[in-house]
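Field: COMPLEX_INPUT
Field: COMPONENT_COUNT = two
Field: RESIDUE_TOTAL = 358
Field: MODE = joint
Values follow.
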Amino acid sequence: MTVKPMMSPDSLPLWEGYEQHDIKLPHCTACSHNHLPPSPVCPLCFSDALEWITAGGRGKVSSWVVVQRKYFEDFDPPYMVAQIELEEGPRLTAAMDMADIDRIKIGLEVQADYRTAPNGMILPIFRPVR
Amino acid sequence: VGGEILRDVVMSSRAHATRNPAALRREQFDADIYAREPLIIEPLRRADCAQINDGAVVVLVTSAERAKEFKKPPIYVRGMQGIRGGPDEFIFAPRGFGIAQQGLANWAEERQPRQVFEMAGVGNAAIDGFFTYDAFSPLVLGALERFGHCAPGTAHKFVADGNIAPGGKLPVNTSGGLLSEAHVAGWNSIAEATRQLRGEAGERQMRQADLIQWGTIWGDSVILGNEA
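Field: COMPLEX_OUTPUT
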């Protein structure tokens, strides 16, 4: 069975942004805080005056795991799931390439690339900058 | 640091479990066996995840006055604090790992809530044992730091030095906890704390057990004592 994430009107622009090879972030026009995951109000000040901005796609690895068990039919282990602290502030959970497993460490500078994931969706996959 | 910081938590749990006839994971266990455990979600190996099973625990809670009518000596709730809320909080994680781990506050330096100690009128040094929700081995490290038993970032050294193992300075989950006795949602550890405070823990009885703290990585806690 193909597994796709749940999408809501609050989060749809994020997923649609990936199709254009963009990372879209909710930006609070009241307090200037950027946040993820998308939500109906700013988690910092609770204002609903949000707008979507386009992130630069650069960040640093803040943590990662390597999934070694098969949980989803489309996704064969092992695969890396990382948390990337974007330059704009929020942390994004995304894939990294197993080809980079020997280079990964906390603080590694990475840049978003885009691939069609096994479930057919275009999703970011982060690679080391150098 | 590497996977050894989780291994040390599991080895301590197993060392406790070997003294508990009711524990399900009592087989011989050492660093080599840990290293051969299959990876589930790296760095977590199978042994870093709780022993899942069915089970039940009954805890009778009543006033200190009424408790005197029971046959067993009462155990007193000396202090308590509830689960924490706010955008920086998330169940199964230390403070700062809330919604998308945004770290809105400088949680490492900010004063952690300590109502449980204030209510009990004691500090960390008075706590004889620490019981915690150990469904996964890393949770133990975070809980030790959250309640000030270790400074931030040092719990793995505290564990490696044997402090939470049998006979250690601050024994943790002396029944083997969720990792080695069974996952009964932590209630089995409340029952074990009660046995320790009553001096009924047999082979695994702690040298001193007058005050035992239950506390989870996400901040709820009670301090139990055998005196009011």
